[in-house]
């Protein structure tokens, strides 16, 4: 595992320290296992991570220059990359190549991911990936790649260094998100009642207000009242947005 000093080196509290923390992450990963680092604070957007002066970290710090896999310039990457798909259904580190995904505990959801034309779609022959699931449904990721673009087996680095890589990657990306992301004051302090959560959970399952009323023993108007109350608390404009925001905050996964 990394030392407290290593973790401290990749954490930061000011935008001015982003670049030095990124350099520390790059250098420690290279020393630890000889791999290159590629990081994203949000796999759903093309916007690359930047230092306090606006320079793109991927090119200026992590060394992805012209002619290499510049993922932030690929418009369909979030929809086409098997690495991105995997981060949506797996929360633990994994490594993968064109022959499959490798995890400590089997995940059947990974087996359903299309690996055809892997090199072109993943922009690498193999990758060791740390998914980082963040508040409000945001997913970041750190990919660790071989300097040899033809290398297809990362089982060695995965076995020897994956836990340490995960600690460093999470510390860096979580710091970046906290420092640069827009503050979500509109949702951070929301509290829903038990009835509101129950109504939303059944609504998310596709039930109508009448059906929810039958299930919970409530009048249809009462169901509408609870869903409307939740909408107001979540500052949502319609039922779909209410369910989306409730899901982001984890309410829909709560035990009945």
Automatic annotation (TrEMBL):
Q: Which GO terms describe its molecular function?
A: DNA binding
SUPFAM superfamilies in the record: C-terminal effector domain of the bipartite response regulators (SSF46894)
| Keywords assigned | DNA-binding, Transcription, Transcription regulation
Name of the protein in question? Helix-turn-helix transcriptional regulator
PROSITE patterns assigned: HTH_LUXR_1, HTH_LUXR_2
Spell out the CDD domains in the cross-references.
LuxR_C_like (cd06170)
One Gene Ontology term of the biological-process aspect is: regulation of DNA-templated transcription
Q: Which domain of life is it from?
A: Bacteria
Pfam families in the cross-refs = GerE (PF00196)
UniProt key word DNA-binding: yes
Q: Where is the HTH luxR-type domain?
A: 185-250
């Amino acid at each position: 595992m990394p030392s407290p000093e290593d973790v401290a080196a990749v954490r930061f509290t000011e935008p001015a320290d982003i670049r030095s923390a990124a350099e520390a992450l790059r250098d420690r990963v290279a020393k630890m296992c000889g791999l290159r680092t590629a990081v994203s604070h949000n796999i759903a957007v093309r916007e690359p991570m930047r230092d306090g002066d606006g320079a793109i970290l991927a090119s200026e710090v992590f060394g992805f220059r012209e002619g290499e896999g510049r993922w932030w310039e690929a418009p369909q990457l979030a929809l086409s990359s098997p690495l991105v798909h995997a981060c949506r259904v797996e929360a633990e580190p994994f490594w993968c190549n064109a022959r499959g995904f490798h995890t400590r505990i089997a995940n059947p959801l990974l087996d359903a991911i299309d690996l055809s034309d892997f090199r072109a779609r993943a922009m690498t022959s193999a990758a060791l990936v740390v998914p980082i699931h963040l508040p409000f449904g945001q997913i970041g990721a750190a990919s660790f790649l071989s300097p040899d673009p033809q290398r297809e087996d990362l089982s060695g680095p995965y076995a020897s260094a994956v836990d340490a890589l995960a600690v460093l990657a999470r510390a860096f990306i979580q710091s970046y998100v906290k420092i640069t992301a827009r503050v979500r004051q509109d949702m951070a302090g929301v509290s829903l009642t038990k009835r509101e959560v129950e109504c939303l959970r059944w609504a998310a399952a596709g039930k109508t207000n009448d059906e929810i009323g039958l299930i919970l023993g409530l009048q249809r108007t009462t169901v509408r009242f609870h869903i409307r109350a939740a909408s107001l608390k979540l500052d949502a404009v319609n039922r779909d947005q209410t369910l989306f925001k409730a899901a982001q905050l984890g309410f829909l996964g709560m035990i009945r």
